[in-house]
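Feature request disguised as a bug report, sorry. It would help if multi-protein outputs had a clear separator. Right now it looks like this:
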Amino acid sequence: MKKMKKHRYDVVVVGGGAAGVAAALGAARQGARTLLVERYGFLGGAATTSLVLTYCGFYVAGEHATRAIGGVGWELLQELENLGVDSSPVRSKSGNWLVMLDTEALKFAFDRLVCTPNLDLRFHTQLVSAAVESNRIVTVCLADHEGLHEIEAAAFVDASGEASLSAFAGASFSQPGGAGARLQPASLPVQLGGVQGGLPVDREKLTAIVSRYNAQAKTPLHRADGGVLVRLPISDDVWWMGVDLATGGLQGEELATAELAARRQAWDFLPYLRKLPGFEKAFISTTGPQLGIRETRRPRSMGDVTGEDGRTGRRRNDGIGRGCWPMEVHEAPGQVIFVPIGGDGFFDIPYTAIQAEGIENLRLAGRVMGADRQAYGSTRVMGTAFASGQAAGVSAALQATLGKMPDANAVRRVLMSQDAIV
């Protein structure tokens, strides 16, 4: 067996989704030698791996689109515009604003963002373990097709979605995840081609079609109205979000069962969907490399975002980003509760929410950020993940330089210099 290769960085970021890319760029632009680790061959997280082709959380709900996200997230939207993708917000019937996405353009937009000084990438690379001494992560072990690599760093960012780095480092969890846990269900977004343009979706007829399908289906669709059906930019295909199912989201065997079941349900329903006007020639164009996982593990932070923060639109002196998406909690497949954000339509994310409890050089970003069950329904979305990620990366870079935890004011100053909104 080959000897493990050793490498040294200032900051290591695990996970190349919205939070991870924002963290890596936030750290690199602060001068930290940064490594970004991603298990696939492209960046983008749930948008590219799970076909979640809507960015939520960029704009405050209301009649007019008011931005809550700047910095790396806003730069990404500008890169999409440069590639010919209209990133203008689209208002839903609920009054919330969405940005519709194209998968391939999004991958390339992320590619263009990360070609920057101080930032190294490792694709097709998995986190294997973490070594901890005196409440600090000292090294992580990574695996690629060549073998194992030991990476030493001064600070680390967990943007893995499933809190893998936190788990391997022995962090404590407010939501341990896994089979039997009370988790928000997963979804399988599907891109449909061959749908006739110009025809509105006949919801009454679609509901009747779902009812007929469910009457004979081994596994019924949990969204009685058929779910979300919306046009995508560039391809003009239809994005369908209608397949929901429960899964622990961590164990390989259980995930295999869930992935197979989700695809089977999409294919089983397709002949019924073709009975809908305009969908007669519909076909499944693509699904993502993996199921869309909403929730698995949540580490304990030094101070979580709470449902009360969201309900009141709480402002804070130590805010390092803004959350504005309603608290969207999926209680079970097909059962979702939306709680609007109070105050001015957004809340400040406290600096404490991105600091891991008990591990002084670990930052939490994206879905891994500290939040209670209700607030998590808001903080988990990708727009907000850009904000928590960039703050986590800046904080990690400052710690690598200072040798100690930076205070909130120092992080806020750097974020503002990077055009983030705090």
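(second protein starts here, but nothing in the output says so)
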Amino acid sequence: MYYRKYNAKPVFVDGIRFDSKKEGSRYKKLKELKESGEVISFELQKPYPLNDYAKTKREQIKYCCDFFIKWKDGTETIEDTKGFKTQVYKIKKKLFETKYRIKIVES
């Protein structure tokens, strides 16, 4: 049996597994926005290293955003769908925003 923290239930959309219904719904909306031309492209689970000094993979700390979006006006956004913000997420968010000077959009 697969156990999820915080009662989020995984869903499959287009054969892709999402950790929650909320994340799956956002994926569907981004597909619609891409078809309409509002969004140029988007990536799922794009990783960003948070510590450049790691010597091994095991030492690496990274943040993976739920969605990296390129909009038709040329802007780019990093999105994370959160039902519950864990302490680890809050720390990684702060590290990411400090290092990359990009604000994470939460939905």
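Even a blank line would do. Unrelated, but nice: Residues 5-106 form a domain with the Trna Endonuclease; Chain: A, domain 1 fold (CATH 3.40.1350.10).
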